[in-house]
Design a protein that fits this description.
Layout: E1 18-25, E2 38-45, E3 50-54, H1 61-68, E4 76-81, E5 84-85, H2 91-101, E6 102-105, H3 117-127, H4 132-140, H5 161-173, E7 179-183, H6 191-208, E8 211-215, H7 219-222, E9 227-232, E10 235-241
Parallel strand pairs: 3-8, 3-9, 6-7, 7-8
Antiparallel strand pairs: 1-2, 1-4, 4-5, 9-10
Helix pairs in contact: 3-4, 3-5, 5-6
The protein binds adenosine-5'-triphosphate (ATP).
Residues 27, 37, 55, 57-63 line the site of adenosine-5'-triphosphate.
Length: 242
């Protein structure tokens, strides 16, 4: 991938550090219409680090996640993953990167209702060309570590909310991604179940060496992470380490 870096971008590091450099994103066509969703955000997520992003509604948390994950292209600035620029990458290579290097967990409703849990988990591997037997074996191996042993053939409608989120975590991690992006992963769960899900999400990510970027409104969820960033009006205005 070619490097087209912003003039002041720090030297890229060809490791599994995720770097966002001076990210600006405006959804409205002109600045007069509304303030930018991202107004110049810079951050680095170290390999294996877990980072929570908190802030009021509309402060730009989800936009930051989408820009860092290569889903949304920034208007200014760049995202560097493994030493390469996402901004200058083609749509096709960004899609390939998302599939091979990143995993995603959303609030709910992300599993395919018709497929048994194990097939839901195997899906990213199947889409990447792994043969079915090997994909399902790798998927099944994640059930016990996530406390899901015996639920492999259940369909999503036959799982509790917390079990379904743990299946979604397995699916995000089955391809051993470099970074897992999670947007309100416990937003639909009660406090106790949320704690269980975070225990599994942080524990298994750490075990597999994946970094974690979590958008959340819940300070208890952020408390599971190494670091919490606070956003306001499209900027990072504070940071706390555990
Ligand atoms: N697709 C879009 N088109 C236009 N404006 C958008 C779009 N997505 C987000 N915005 C605007 O960008 C700003 C930041 O939104 P974003 O969803 O990133 O905030 P957030 O902090 O994640 O909010 P919440 O906590 O409510 O999910 C808001 O003003 C929002 O209205």
């Amino acid at each position: 991938m070619t490097q087209q870096l912003h003039a002041t971008t720090p030297p890229p590091t060809a490791d599994r550090t995720l770097v966002g450099h001076h990210l600006v994103k405006r959804y409205a066509p002109s600045v007069q219409d509304s303030p930018p969703a991202l107004a110049g955000v810079s951050l680095a997520v170290a390999p294996g680090e877990s980072v929570a992003v908190m802030g009021p509604s509309g402060s730009g948390k989800t936009t930051l996640l989408h820009v860092l994950a290569g889903i949304v292209r920034p208007d200014e600035g760049d995202v560097i993953w493994n030493g390469a620029s996402l901004r200058s990458a083609s749509d096709a290579s960004r899609t390939t990167l998302r599939r091979s290097a990143f995993g995603f967990v959303f609030q709910s409703g992300q599993l395919i209702p018709e497929l048994p849990a194990v097939e839901n988990v195997a899906l990213p591997l199947l889409l990447g060309g792994t043969d079915r037997r090997r994909a399902e074996a790798r998927a099944a191996a994640l059930f016990a570590p996530l406390g899901l042993a015996g639920l492999e053939r259940r369909r999503p409608g036959e799982l509790s909310g917390g079990q379904a989120q743990r299946v979604a975590i397995a699916r995000a991690l089955v391809g051993t991604p470099g970074v897992v992006f999670a947007d309100e992963p416990t937003g639909a769960l009660d406090q106790h179940t949320s704690g269980e899900v975070m225990h599994h999400l942080t524990g298994l990510s750490r075990h597999l060496g994946a970094s974690l970027l979590i958008v959340t409104h819940d300070a208890n969820v952020a408390g599971w992470c190494d670091r919490t960033l606070h956003m306001q009006d499209g900027r990072i205005v504070g940071e706390a380490r555990r």
